[in-house]
Amino acid sequence: MSTIEVGLPDGRTLEVSQGATVLDVAEQIGAGLARAALAGRIAGELVDLRQSLDASCSLEIVTTKDPAGGEVIRHSAEHVMADAVKRLFPQAQVDAGRTDHTEKFQYDFKVAEPFTPEDLDAIAAQMKKIVKEKADFVREVVTREEAERIFTEMGEDLKVQRLHDIPDGQDITLFRHGKFVDLCRGPHVRNTKQIGAMQLIEAAGAYWKGDERNEMLQRIYGTAFATKDELKEHNERLEQARERDHRRLGTQLDLFHLDPDAPGSPYYLPKGMVVYNGLVDFMKSLYPKYGYSEVMTPQVNRARIYKTSGHYDMFHDDMFWMDGADDEEEVGVKATNCPCHCRVFSLGKRSYRELPLRLAEFSRLHRNERSGTLTGLSRVRSMAQDDAHIFCEPEQVEDEVARFFEMLKEVYTALGLDGLEVKLETRPEEFMGDPADWDVAEGRLKDAVEAAGFQCGINPGEAAFYGPKVACDFKDVLGRSWTLGTIQMDMAMPGRFGLHYTGRDGEEHQPAMLHRAVLGSLERFMSLYIEHTAGDFPLWLSPVQVAILPIADRHHDYARKVADTLAAGGIRVFVDDRAEKLNYKIREAELQKVPIMCVLGDQEEEAGTVSPRLRRVGEHRAEAMAVDAFVEDLTGRVARREV
Fold first, then answer.
1. pLDDT value at 122 more than 80
2. What average pLDDT does range 351-374 have in this prediction?
């Protein structure tokens, strides 16, 4: 029997038989590791313990010490939940589970009646019994015909239809534990006893395949961890998340309104516009420094520009389309700026001397997201993107990636964001261009990321259809990971639009095209930033920067005089002259997250001073200072965008 080499994280290499499983390798390393093993990782991708190794590779054994271990536990608990439902409700049909198990699991079921809280209690109790059975998870690769026979005999009509969605040529894998079986890629734990603490969260209606035209199913959400302590910590984080939910804070702070008559299209209120415009103005202020030219392109275009770009075929259902005024004219509302920026590049004869050409735009974009997927500002139909496209010579790509990271660091520092993780998203199953060109582009981006001083992780198959992408993730105060900045190489559009420039050799060449965003969607960024800061924005971005709190009616005139001086200096100020007690006014200002309060009484009015109180912990100050000095101090801090 032939052998292969398996590289380990510590630099060792093991020689194993070709066809050995991930678990076989773990057992060869040590019995303790094999008992703790939950999955493996090859080239950044999680694989099942029962996955056979047919070629030499580098392998990591995933245990509970690895964050991905929790994902495997939750995925396995998901199957246990479906098993419990089938035991209690034999007529239920099992649809699909969840693809993202970073925090929770879910399954959709076709049942006669919606699940009740009592049903959830019974299902949770049944899950505990199943775990105690200590059944092994078994992976099987079957033919499409065999899978269809199995699920047809089980009466799982939804599962048979899901089977038809699996592309031809892709392995059909089943996972079993006990008598339960489901279509699944895995990975799963070795044995149900490795699933520690489980908790069902709620049941809710969900349209089949997320389409409101389809029948309503019942979805059950749950979560699971290796230990009860981890589950307790998770629930505490969830409570913090509820307190920080941007939808709750958006209402409390008068930032935006979500209206049922405009699904996915937020109303920005005056205070919300301060934050929105503050972010936009900040980004635009950096354009001269980083060499960007701002453009504005049409909101509505004829379909042919999207056919040229490839969006018509690849993105059609996600766009808004309508008939134009001319016969047989189809027009689309702009969902992305890149086709229009390609058109701008093509308007004149270009030379290498003009490159890099960096075009930036903040216009509104619209995407036809399903109503069931819309979530506050984080998933919308109407948005603006911190969007830019860079056209450059191929050999300039590395410098442009370095410039992107320089700009990104400046922006994130001003916003108090840190702890970046950078990953390369590689070619998906459906893509445009030549695979060899993708390989070159992926290698070039990876080299550029490492040259910029970052370790480059890999997200296999996660790129958009037109090119590999570098994604910059950061973790918020609740430990959640978010993708913000991205820079992406386009493998399709320069060629599809016939873009050329005259090179240094006098010949025509096709430019490299980079899509870049530092904040991404403004709406999505605001949702996560509100939650990250709990609405406690840095001084330069706060909708109200100073609250003036006169103690009594006789101090109102002085309060307005101070407010006028602050406003003349460009400071956003509010005078609370309501007939309320001072403690009530202070409490209200704190709830509105106003960073600075000035309580004005007889002493301040007589001396012509203010005594600013800084709301943030560790910054409280109440020393009296002249009004002009206060304005000078504040304007300086705002200009420096101090966090």
1. yes
2. 93
- Tell me if 519 sits within 8 A of 279, measured CB to CB: yes
Question: Which domains, and CATH codes, for the chain?
Answer: 3-63 (3.10.20.30), 68-232 (3.30.980.10), 256-533 (3.30.930.10), 539-639 (3.40.50.800)
The three-class DSSP label of residue 267 is: strand
492 within 8 A of 515, measured Cβ to Cβ: no
Instruction: Specify the long-range contacts of residues 318-324, CB closer than 8 Å, at least 24 apart.
Output: 318/367, 318/368, 318/369, 319/366, 319/367, 319/368, 320/366, 320/367, 320/368
| Phi, psi at 419, each rounded to 5° | 70, 45
Is residue 15 left, alpha or beta, with left meaning phi > 0 and alpha meaning psi from -120 to 50? Answer: beta
d(CA 67, CA 199): 19
Question: Is residue 326 within 8 Å of residue 311, measured between CB atoms?
Answer: no
Distance between CA atoms of residues 82 and 75, nearest Å: 11
- Say what the pTM is: 0.77
Q: Which residues pair with 472 in a beta bridge?
A: 422
Catalytic residues: 338, 367, 385, 387, 389, 469, 515
The H or E element spanning position 322 is: strand 321-323
Q: What is the helix (H) or strand (E) element at residue 474, kind and residue range? A: strand 469-475
Q: HEC string of 46-94? A: EECCCCECCCCEECEEECCCCHHHHHHHHHHHHHHHHHHHHHHCCCCEE
Among candidate residues 234, 246, 236, the one with its CA nearest the CA of residue 102: 234
Which residue's entry shows tokens 């701008």? Answer: 344
pLDDT at 541 over 90: yes
State the Cα–Cα distance between residues 43 and 57, nearest whole angstrom.
Answer: 8
Tell the burial category of 342 from Cβ atoms under 10 Å away from its Cβ (0-12, 13-18, 19+).
Answer: buried
Cβ neighbours, 10 Å, residue 347: 7
